[in-house]
């Protein structure tokens, strides 16, 4: 299926879920503005090797049109410049807006009371993970309202109210889930669809590196963490976004908090290995009261 007329902005497309989403939209044939802070000549504070140029090249290889745009979404002027590019290059068309900016993993602390966390780092994580989304929405959604349609996807972590063990991390991700809900109210009346969407145990570049494996031999990490057997590639949540973008009846999801595994069951897509990891169902059993030994393959 091709949707060569689709125009998408993926905020936070440099790596992880954002990259997987950009590439999956490219596989639809879409024009994807791969936006983020890390470029080949100007790395971000994350100090990782992935770049927006590399993401744009992967979009092209998948069959779409990839356009790298350096943009700090906490800075309104940067997002204004992106909006101006959309106006001049594609007539202001914007069909899909994905807010996946985070950049908070190095800033969040675990295993101690929140009042012992570094406050400056915690507030920067909030700025990266919430303020960036609000700026993106404020500046770019008007393009979609003007056309009377489009899809807004807020990428978060988790689809429920379980506490994630760090106050500052939790309030950011809960806030993004709430954005998906309230945007449904605000934007549905203008013909737009807005959702929050979570992956499961995400096999990001940083996660693979942390476990000392690659995408090719990722299952070797199960020896260190048995739950890694349920890990999903960034393409899984990417295919979830692509399925939503291609669905003519996408408005039925408006205001919902969705998951990669839920949408895989709905739309029939798989992860790269042909499986459908169901992190939600697995998590209820593996982390439930019994915490018994279970076979992850029964949940893929």
TrEMBL record:
Pfam entry (one): adh_short
Residues of the signal peptide: none
Name of this chain's protein: NAD(P)-dependent dehydrogenase (Short-subunit alcohol dehydrogenase family)
Source organism: Nonomuraea africana
């Amino acid at each position: 299926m091709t949707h060569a007329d689709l125009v998408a902005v993926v905020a936070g497309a440099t790596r992880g879920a954002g990259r997987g989403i950009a590439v999956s939209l490219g596989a639809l044939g879409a024009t994807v503005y791969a936006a983020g802070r890390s470029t080949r000549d100007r790395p971000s504070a994350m100090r990782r090797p992935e770049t927006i140029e590399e993401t744009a090249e992967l979009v092209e290889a998948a069959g779409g049109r990839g356009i790298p745009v350096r943009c700090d979404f906490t800075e309104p002027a940067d997002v204004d410049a992106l909006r101006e590019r959309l106006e001049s290059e594609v007539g202001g068309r914007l069909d899909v807006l994905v807010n996946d900016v985070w950049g908070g993993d190095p800033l969040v602390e675990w295993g101690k009371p929140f009042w012992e966390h570094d406050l400056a780092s915690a507030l920067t994580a909030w700025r990266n993970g919430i303020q960036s989304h609000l700026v993106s929405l404020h500046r770019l959604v008007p393009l979609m309202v003007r056309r009377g349609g489009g899809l807004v996807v807020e990428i978060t972590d988790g689809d429920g109210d379980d506490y994630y063990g760090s106050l500052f991390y939790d309030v950011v991700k809960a806030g993004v889930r709430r954005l998906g809900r309230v945007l449904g109210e605000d934007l549905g009346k203008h013909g737009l669809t807005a959702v929050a969407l979570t992956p499961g145990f995400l096999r990001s570049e940083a996660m693979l590196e942390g476990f000392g494996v690659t995408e090719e031999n990722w299952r070797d990490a199960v020896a260190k963490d048995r739950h890694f057997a349920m890990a999903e590639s960034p393409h899984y949540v990417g295919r979830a976004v692509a399925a939503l973008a291609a669905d003519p009846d996408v408005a039925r999801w408006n205001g919902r908090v969705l998951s990669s595994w839920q949408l895989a069951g709905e739309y029939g897509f798989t992860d790269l290995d042909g499986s459908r990891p169901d992190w939600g169902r697995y998590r209820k059993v593996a982390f439930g009261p019994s915490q018994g030994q279970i076979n992850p393959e029964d949940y893929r």
